[in-house]
Amino acid sequence: MATYVVTGVSKGIGYEFLRQLSADPSSTVVGIVRDKPTTVKKVSEDPDLKGRSNIHILEADVTNYDALKKAAADTAKITGGSIDYLIANAGYVSQFDGFDPIGVLGEKPKELERVLKELFDTNVVGNVHLYNLFMPLVLKGQTKKVIVISSGMADPDLTTNFDLEAGSLYAISKAGMNMVTAKFSAQYKKDGVLFLSICPGMVDVGHYNNVTPEQTVGLGKTMQKFAEYAPHFKGPATPESSVKDVRSVWEKASIENGDGGAYLSHFGNKQWI
Ligand SMILES: NC(=O)c1ccc[n+]([C@@H]2O[C@H](COP(=O)([O-])OP(=O)(O)OC[C@H]3O[C@@H](n4cnc5c(N)ncnc54)[C@H](OP(=O)(O)O)[C@@H]3O)[C@@H](O)[C@H]2O)c1
User: Fold this and answer.
1) Which residue among 17, 34, 118, 199 has the greatest number of ligand 1 atoms within 8 angstroms of its CB, and so is best to mutate?
2) CATH number where 8 lies
3) Number of helices and strands in the chain (H, E)
4) How far is 153 from 159, CA to CA, in rounded Å?
5) Which domain, by its residues, includes 126?
6) pLDDT tier for residue 208 given thresholds of 50, 70 and 90
7) Which of 82, 157, 185, 216 has the least CB density, counted as fewest CB within 10 Å?
8) Span 113-129, average pLDDT
9) Across the chain, what does the average pLDDT equal?
10) In degrees, to the nearest 5, what angle opens at C-alpha 251 toward C-alphas 179 and 76?
11) Would I find ATP-binding among this entry's keywords (predicted)?
12) Is the per-residue pLDDT at 234 higher than 90?
């Protein structure tokens, strides 16, 4: 029996967290989304999820501090004032930088700036507020685990060893969030709170369903580099298997094992795919 708060459960990996974590009726799962009616409807029409009274959907855009503050207050009412796990899954996955090197993005400076700021607001600033606002509930919980869904794209060694050009702005935001994990761990490890950044692997959630022929060229280059990095890699995982892997990593990890503030893959190490 555990209490979870997960952001971004409207679709993709977050929806799969909602599905798997609520499968145990003794657990309580609070999902935070930007559009509550749409997710409530989706859950009520899902044969797997409908009727699960342990699912609670709250509404907050992670870039809206007041909305997050209300979500924390509403969560406390639902759970009795404590939570075991806080999962920062919501993220802005930008398309603008998904296919070209950073120097090419520089040909559109205004768009570069807009996307980079939105990435920082969502993937970094929003999660800093999320962590601070939910920390009183985490500190009162039993398990005390706080996890951000990171990305192997944020690994500087992977980037330099394989000259991985694409995804630059997104990677910058995810690398920033890895440091947030380390800094929160530095403060709260002594209180028994384990902070982790976990990459879910490459997961098929439909991000590349509508790529243009030009974008396909950029995507092909990235996939070639992934094949060089991991010759065993056969393609993206399903959300189901990825979420199982990520959960297994956070279950095994502990402050006692030296994992406080760590940046890990879904394998529990630095092998990203
Ligand atoms: N898929 C992969 O291969 C992969 C690899 C590495 C890391 N990740 C990470 O995994 C996490 C989940 O992504 P995904 O792959 O499942 O992508 P996704 O299907 O695009 O889901 C992203 C989720 O984040 C929510 N979100 C975005 N901006 C938000 C905001 N400002 N406030 C609140 N919620 C917001 C979205 O809500 P809306 O429905 O309202 O847009 C959606 O629920 C992300 O952090 C992503 O960076 C994914």
Assistant:
1) 34
2) 3.40.50.720
3) 10, 7
4) 7
5) 3-264
6) confident
7) 157
8) 98
9) 97
10) 75
11) no
12) no
